[in-house]
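for the record, two folds in this file. i put them one after another cuz i was lazy. first one right below, seq on top, structure tokens after. the second one comes after a little note so u can tell where it starts
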Amino acid sequence: MNELMLISDDFRRTERLLHDLRLSIPSTIYDLYDHTPPANPPAIILSDIRELTSDVIARLKHLLCQAGIGKKPHVFVVYNEGPRTQAYAQMLGVTTMITAAAISTLPRVIERVVVEAGIVPLSAQKHASRAREFLRDTIMAGVLTPTEVANGTEIVATAISAHGIYDWIRVVRDFDDGTHQHILLVAGLAAAFAGTLGMSMADRHRLAQAALLHDVGKTKIPVAILNKPGRLDAAEMTVMRTHAVEGYRMLIGLGFDDAMLGVVRSHHEMLDGSGYPDRLSGDSIPDFVRLITVCDVYGALIEERPYRAPMAATEAYSILVGMMGRLDADLVHAFRPVVIASASHANRFGTLVSSH
């Protein structure tokens, strides 16, 4: 049964939530205190429960058991974050948590779960649109928690797995917001690069997550500078370059690990010490940062800017090759398959600059 089962401790609240969300999948609300389970196991479960007590958890477990749900996707709305909530969620087999503060993103979370469950396929366009909405409603709105960013990472990772980097770039390039376009291009490239490098699934997601966060500091840059229809002058460039430190400051204390914080602060550092904000060089720049920097530079080159057309893959990769010494040479070589894939098939790509 391709239905969403909503379990609630307040029928009216969940009914309003369901009305506001306008979900596309058929949905039925079940009262936590009414022991009547669904006649057939649902495809997805959504728990909308404000107060978590031992009695509530016992009732939830009983209802889930009665419904014969097994290991179905279970989305959990979290009203009070903390270790106890995390423990309860693990006990209940929750697969995705979403905070009440980010409830507006729930339709996209449910949609992602629907796709991953094989109920409804999504086009590359739809994946990218969901990702852009995620950026607008979370990262750009300052809703910065590891849980919410992980939800966005799932959108990108699923899209790259389903459609590949070529379709992702083709769709994202059509976005009219330059910041959204750039972040999503870099996130897609990072997910594809991680796959090429044979990283574990956990590390692939971490790399894509770091890419989604890398330019969060641009939310602190004046719009007139961020969206200027032309090249920035020296003073404007000085302001723009503060985004790395601003982003780092925004994330401190919010639960992001040192690798994530390092990417946000240091993704413009160069191996020869010519980068910013700290003029790091050589081994002082972690591998995680180096990976994102390659994706960031390439993403910027293939984007359309008000003062130039997007570069072709061959031209952009030539620049990466020319930056060896500032960029990690081994990673530039390793990035070559992503570049080929980003231009679709090799026979449409032409002669790629030699990486040797």
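(here's the note) second protein begins now
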Amino acid sequence: MSVRELVVLGTASQVPTRHRNHNGYLLRWDGQGILFDPGEGTQRQMLRAGVAAHDINRICVTHFHGDHSLGLAGVIQRINLDRVPHPVTAHYPLSGEHFFERLRYATAYRESVPLAQQPVAGESAVLAETSGYVLEAHRLSHPVESYGYRIVEPDGRRILPALLAERGIRGPDVGRLQREGELNGVTLDDVSEVRLGQRFAFVMDTRMCAGVHALADGCDMLVIESTFLDGDFQLAADHGHLTAGQAASAARDAGVRHLVLTHFSQRYSDPEEFERQARAAGFEGELTVAADLVRVPLPKRTP
């Protein structure tokens, strides 16, 4: 059975707290696992969340501040220690390749698993095209080079039984029509409609910029930083971050169905205030203020 869910491993920003680990997020996408921004402590959080190294097919790092990348060394070594039976691919800003190399080889260990390094450069890029999704990256606005990631499922088609009946197509002929695209003058377009593929975006440290809007556009789920509350707007701008209201406004304008707020400053003690400010900004969809070790299912496909 296919599973699409976000496993939250950590939600703190620069400084971890007693209740929030540094960043870490695993997206389960059917049989694939994409690990985003493994901060310090990610390997232990994986254990607590029931996530194994075998679950990881890709690692996507938005930028090389420690709370988003210091866990790379442990995760990569665990992938090799556990002899993960498939190759793993890592994406990260090209400008930080020397940081990735240092973390990959931070200590001595035996490499047993192929790890492909495919860094990101430019304003945007298509990083991978698989049968289940396309992985894209868009540049963000932060004091160090940073990218957000977007996963887009190819659109499919939904067969409409009423239209099949009108044209007398039934039984094995339905399968033939789906395979061949045409049967006795009836095309697949005649008896079906487009079913939009799901869209997921991961947006970490950034000011509001074109990249945020491009990543969020039409997403079923948007995971986005909201380091500060709206009262600290200037502080957010100065340090290259978003407020809860800004993140929610971007989600509202992009038509996001499920908004996940995360990456919270340790200065705040009331997580419910992030939800209140997101709602005040006009976001009316499903909303999760992330906590460590929660699992958030992607919304069901649009009918």
